[in-house]
Prior knowledge:
Ribonucleotide Reductase Protein R1, domain 1; 6 strands; single chain; Argininosuccinate lyase; lyase; mainly alpha
Amino acid sequence: MAKKAWGGRFKGQTDPRVETFTESISFDARLAEVDIRGSKAHSSMLAKIGLLTKEERDQIHSTLDEIKSQIDAGKFEHVTSLEDIHMHIETALVEKLGDVGRKLHTARSRNDQVSTDLRLYVRDAIKEIDALLIDVQKAFVTRCEIDKETVLPAYTHLQRAQPVMAAHYWLAYCEKYQRDRERLADCYKRVDVSPLGCAALAGTSLPIDRDFSAKLLGFGGVASNSLDVSSDRDYLLEFCFSLSLISAHLSTWAEEWIIWFTTEFGFLKLPEAYTTGSSIMPQKRNPDVLELIRGKTARVMTSVTQLQILIKSLPMAYNRDLQEDKIAMFDAFDTVRACLELVPDMVVGAELRTENINARLEEGFLDATALMEYLIKQGVPMRTAHHTVGQMVAECEDRGCRLADLSLEDFQKACDKIDEKVFDVLGVQNAVAALQSYGSGGRERVAEQVAVWQERLGL
Ligand code: ARG
């Protein structure tokens, strides 16, 4: 059994079941790289203020590098009694360096150490997720070119509403992911604050230079209250919340495409590589990847609830409960990353089945609002125009025809302000062409937005 770093005041042994119960090495081993980065900065700071010699610092650095190579090569043994990655690395250092290794933890506690590690980890994670979001946005903008001429029905309540350019759909997702990116960038500002040197909860009497270690680690600032640092996991919650909104956006997209992929809709062909078959029904091609993207949202969203409940009643400062924070965050991060990695190829590889879309595009009165707006332009008050068009739609439903099938006589019977120009606004193509307000789904406005996105993403 390895000797415990905190064993001085203990006479007996820890119950092995307690060691198994309290360990975190099984899930925090992945902090090794950031832990070593943090320890190098910390030891450099100790050397700067004279608590380590330059030689000792160099010895610590090269031994940490050795340990890192051992870890990378899969030759670093985990021992349950050593609890976590921090104790594992420090113990290995002491084994190799003796007293010099025993100096590393000067003016540091695992409490500021673990928070430093987590912040370094989350900083990298945010950069990784952001890069993946850019790839997803690029894929959607690429689709805008592919589907340049395609018009789609847009829905509210999953009932046909008004027509929009297909690219309007793709850019809607770009907007959502842009807000996700902005949220991550904002979260980054609060992650990017150095806890190192706050020690256990009260700081230290040793003459440390916290700015120096923070700078070495590339932190934008230094935390001002050691009690706060020791207890704070807000940054993890914010990160997981950002991830959970990303997963919500992924999930609504997946849901929409699952619906579009049905025989009933028939709007979409998914690339074969992203669908699976049935063990009994030979004809089946199922959108399992999309379904799992939707399904995995559950665990990402749950991470936020887990962390909220975890922190809600903790007295200051550090409590061991906080060790559980990593399980929730790592899982949310891994899940969102795995989803995002699959999305771009699926987005670019799918095909809109324009023959099916166009065959039914004139169903569902997608041009009714365009007709109402024509009446408004003819001087009819909006509410009257709405009512009149509603009656015409009911009439068409009775006759089993479209608005464009009505005669000028029919129109003029409904409203004497209608002239022959009414036919210029009827039909889906006319209705989509008429949309012109900023941000609308009309042809010209969408083309402008596509250009904006191409420029923004350097396409
Ligand atoms: N493994 C612990 C965690 O992740 C490290 C901090 C331990 N600190 C303590 N005071 N026991 O939270």
